[in-house]
Amino acid sequence: MIKNFMVYDTYTNQKLTFVSKNRMNYIRIARRIILGLIIILGICIVASSVGAVNIPLTDTIAITINKIIGIRIKSNWPEVSESILVNLRFPRIILAGVVGAALSISGAAYQGLFRNPLADPYLIGSASGAGLGAAIVFLTGLPLLALGGGLLPIAAFIGSITAVTLAYIIGRRQGKLGITTLILAGVAVSSLAGAITSLLMIKSDPNLRPLMSWLLGGFSGSRWNDVFVLLPYVFPPMIVLIFYSRALNILQLNDLHAQTLGINVNRTKTIILLCASLVTASAVAFSGVIGFVGLVGPHVVRLIWGSDYRHLVPMSAVLGAGFLILADLGARVIAIPTELPVGIITAFFGAPFFIYILKTNKKS
Fold this sequence. Notes:
The chain is mainly α. The chain has one domain (4-363): ABC transporter involved in vitamin B12 uptake, BtuC (Orthogonal Bundle), CATH 1.10.3470. It has 15 helices and four strands. It has a two-stranded antiparallel ribbon with strand order 1-2. It has a two-stranded antiparallel sheet with strand order 3-4. Helix 1 crosses helix 2, helix 3 (79-114) packs across helix 13 (293-305) and helix 6 (151-171) packs antiparallel against helix 12 (265-287). The radius of gyration is 21 Å and the shape is globular. The two termini are 34 Å apart.
């Protein structure tokens, strides 16, 4: 049985020693996750208090505790404050956190799968496919209120999964999943979906504004129903990705070496690809196209804790959740009383960070 093995990280070129699963320090990882969740809770409370209508922090804490555990630590608070928090800000913040965690953890998975630190959830056409699905709903006159208002995310989800499946079929040849072929297929599928979306937009100018708003990403109008519908689609595959984090370490070797260490390479790649794509498609369906979260989250974790995927995968989810909650807060407060698309905020932070990653990777 393999007890220890050594890998060179493809991003930092560091020599890393990973021990076998039964000797792994789960306590240290658990402590980091718990600390991260506590910090996110603090961010959520602050984000809930700030907006077009500011709510005292004490009222926010009191209402939150009352709704979670049923204890009143304050005698009373304005009913309008409770209504704003419970019906508007809480579901929006939770949805932003779930989407941020989903995009970030799938970004970490794609980077490990492709052995490419610049990979992100949109590499193989997921976002463009979702955009095409949304464009068809917006611009062909299909009723947005069908299925209780859920037709748009359903169409985006179908478009995203279709694009990923098409790229996967093209990239899989003779029973093997070629990473380079898959990336090229993803670029081709993404370009095709983008071209069709542009064609639809050119032919339907009067309906352009709502589509552009969705394509830039955001959480305006988020409801509890959105949260409850999204969770079953993202949590199971996220747990699978965390379970496969050790396999991602081994995949940093070439396929032959990974196979000699007991990894079924094709099956492992397929499972990771499908889970990451399902997580991405689900998140994009409910948030629109929000870029750079899948880059920023994993790379900040790398800078702080290193490139061991057993740490990188779960901590990317935690950091991605916090990052997108803060980005959504900025989108709400920067231009009060109007609201900016969240995708603009993440682009302002993500684009310079991407350039930094590109320069660092080029030097290494």
